[in-house]
Amino acid sequence: MRTVGVEEELLLVDPDSGDPKALAAAVLARAAHEDPGQDVFEKELFGQMLEFATHPQSDMAALGDEIVRCRKEAARHAGQIGCAVAALATSPLAVSPSLSVNERYQWLAERYGIPTWDQLVCGCHVHVSVESDEEGVAVLDRLRPWLPVLRALSANSPFWQGRSTGYASYRSRVWNRWPSAGPTEPFGSAERYHRLITRMVASGVILDEGMAYFDARLCAHYPTVEIRVADVCLSAETAVLIATLCRALVETAARDWRAGRPAPDPGVSLLRLADWQAARFGLEQDLLDPVGMRPRPAAEVLRSLLEHVADALDGSGDAVRAERAVEEVLRVGNGAREQRRLLEHTGSLRDVVTECVRRTQG
C-alpha cells in the first residue's frame, strides 16, 4: 500500500477582525516550548502563514484524523498568543505580507521582486510514495491531464485583497507567476528529469531544485511524488478526498507504466488552458475533459476521474468513501462556493473569515 502525507499551509488571522496577523514566529516558538521535539509545524514565506506536515499514512481514515489533529493543535498554539488559523488559500481581506526572516526568502524577494510579495497564498501538497525515481517520473508523465481536475475540486480562493476575483482558485493564478510553476512537458525518464532540473539551476533563474515549482514533481528529500496543485481546503474531509485521489492516480499511472501503456500528451499549451478553466470556474461550469481536452460538465469529469482510478481505489479499499465524498462536494460545493455563499449570507468578508476560522478548528 502506498503511503500518503499531506502538507497544509494555514492563514494566521485576528480572531475578531479576521485580518491576517504576522505571528508565525511566536506560534512556532510556543509549539517548540510545549513540545521541543515536534516536527509538525514549520514557518513559511510570510509571517501570516503556518505550515504543518502529517506523517506518512497508508490508511485514509488515519490520515484524516491526523489532519484534524494538526489543525486543532495549530489553532491551540495560535490561540495562546491571541490569533487563530483559517484554512483559506488567500486572504479575503486586504493584507501587507511580512516576509519571514530567512536567507532563502530574502533571495526570492530580491530575485523576483513584486511577484514574491504577492505570494501570501496557502496550498495543500500531497506526497505519495513511489518505488524509484524511474517509477516516479513515469507517474508524473501520466498524471498531467488529471491535475486540473484536482485544482477545480480543491478551489478555495475566490477573494483577494478585499475583492471578489471572479476565480474559484485565484491562488493558482498568483502562484503561476513563479518562472518555474505550472504544467510540464513529459520527461520520459528519470535521467531526463534530473538533467532538466540541473540545467534549470545552472541557468541562475532558480536557486536550487526546491524552486522547480512544477504542478507535480519528485520530492528531493523523500521517495515520493509531490502533487502541488490543490488549494488548502476549507474542509478536512475534502483534503482527505484530494489525498485519496492523488494516491489512486499515482497507483493507476504506475500500473499503466508497468503495462507498457504510453503516457498521454495533450501538450503543455492545452494543459495550461485546462488549468485556467479549472481555476476560473472550479466546479461551477465545464472542465476540459482530460481525455479529449473538450469541455464537459464538471460533475461528469469528476465521475470520469473516479472511473479512471477505480481499480486503484478498489485495491486500497477507498472506493466507496471516495465516491461518497465526490458526490458530497458536488452537492455542497468546494471551498470557493462556500466562501461565496457565506458572503452572500453575511455581506461581510470579515464574517467570512471568522466563520472559516470556526470551520477550520471544528
From TrEMBL:
- Which GO terms of the molecular function aspect are on file? ATP binding; glutamate-cysteine ligase activity
Respond yes or no to whether keyword Heme is given for this record: no
In terms of Pfam families, this protein maps to: GCS2 (PF04107)
Query: What keywords would UniProt list here?
Result: ATP-binding, Ligase, Nucleotide-binding
Look up keyword DNA repair and say if it applies. no
Top enzyme class = ligase
UniProt GO BP: modified amino acid biosynthetic process
The reactions it catalyses are:
L-cysteine + L-glutamate + ATP = gamma-L-glutamyl-L-cysteine + ADP + phosphate + H(+)
Look up the domain of life of the source: Bacteria
Query: What is the E.C. number?
Result: 6.3.2.2
NCBIfam families, sorted? gshA_cyan_rel (TIGR02050), PRK13517.1-1 (NF010041)
Q: Its family?
A: Belongs to the glutamate--cysteine ligase type 2 family. YbdK subfamily.
Q: What does this protein do?
A: ATP-dependent carboxylate-amine ligase which exhibits weak glutamate--cysteine ligase activity.
Q: What is this protein called?
A: Putative glutamate--cysteine ligase 2
